[in-house]
Amino acid sequence: MAAMTMTRPNDPFTSDIARFHEVKGAKDEPFAELTRYHEVRGVREMVESFRVREVPSYYVKPVNERRFTPPSAAVLSMEQQIPCIDLEALSGQELLSAIANACRDWGFFQVLNHGLPSQLVQNMAKQSSEFFAQPLEEKMKCSTPARVSGPVHFGGGGNRDWRDVLKLNCAPASIVAKEYWPQRPAGFRDTMEEYSSQQQALAIRLLKLISESLGLESNYLVAACGEPKVVMAINHYPPCPDPSLTMGIKAHSDPNTITMLLQDDVGGLQVFKEDRWIDVRPLPNALVINVGDQLQILSNGKYSSCLHRVVNNNRQARTSIATFFSPAHACIIGPAPGLVDEVNPAIYPNIVYADYIKAFYTQALGPNNKNGGYLAGIELHRRYNCYTSSSSISS
Ligand SMILES: O=C(O)CCC(=O)C(=O)O
Ligand SMILES: [Fe+2]
């Protein structure tokens, strides 16, 4: 009965909600209904509507995907951190060397003095977490009818992770649907617009520096990506009753070229290095930058797209804003000719980016993935030298 009082009249998911309530606490929740519920409404709504006090089995990860599973359970000592590069303090060869070392040894680094106005960054962080605290109806206004594959989508994140997400296409203009961008909290849409254009400028600046750090012509990597696709994902990780059972984002590498992330001060992002998970400690005013699979391929393996994940906590919601900079889907990506010679043969074949993405999502993140998502796309890329067709997909 309590379930019915908590549902809304004319709610298309009334039966899902009632059913979930009925079976809440039971060992096996109905998979299809919770999938639909999760995709459309997300984790926060479930926790709040049903006053969830224990993790529904739907969100319980297999033991080998959990946070404390040996052999890679330990988080390295507090001194061990991804590099932090101050873009104002360093210049010239010193800056290029710092970038080269970070991309080669870690695939992850933080940047300080990145040039984004601090007021803009603060507004973006504040309004993003305010967005997720709004009533469900307000958040659901941001989904297009195409839902997950549409240009703007709010809902639960993939893989039954303990995460909600607002995903927005930001470029090129032909795939942007500003009319679905959030109107509340007040000013958020304008903030997002400005933030996304500043992020795109920063991506280009970083890719130029990264090209130079590889000894390539400054514009090489930008040109190699054609008319880039830029997607922003605002992730929200509600507190979880038992974070040892769940994952905020399961271990993965990013399939795109470069990712820029603004995280709040809660923490939870971890990178995998030498068989250990290492916390990426939040630094005030910093952005976290990571090498994606396409940069690993373009650099002919000189730079690494690093496995990373987000762990949940039981204290506090965490919000992060990821900007993914990708090649155009029709782009053919392969090792830069300037990095290939007799001593250093190409270790990856050329591939149409759309085909890479298709393989990544079906193989790496699909329900039957066998390798935990770890550079699965790159492995496929290595194995098959025969991608010829370009398919049209939205991610
Ligand atoms: O929330 C984070 O810290 C990381 C998110 C992430 O890895 C992703 O969106 O691909
Ligand atoms: Fe990621």
Averaged pLDDT: 85
SSE pattern: HHHEHEHHEEHHEEEEEEHEEEEHH
Largest sheet: 8 strands, mixed
Q: Ends: how far apart?
A: 41 Å
What is the highest CATH level, the class of the largest domain? Mainly Beta
Helical run tally: 11
Strand content: 15-25%
CATH architecture of the largest domain: Sandwich
**How are the strands of the biggest sheet laid out side by side?**
1-2-10-7-12-5-4-3
Count of discrete domains: 2
The percent range for helix content is 25-40%
Radius of gyration: 21 Å
Number of strands: 14
Structural class, from secondary structure content? alpha+beta
Shape category: globular
Q: What would the CATH topology of the largest domain be?
A: Jelly Rolls
CATH homologous superfamily title of the largest domain? B-lactam Antibiotic, Isopenicillin N Synthase, Chain
Uncertain ranges? 1-10, 365-376, 380-395
- Which small-molecule ligands are present, each listed once? 2-oxoglutaric acid, fe (ii) ion
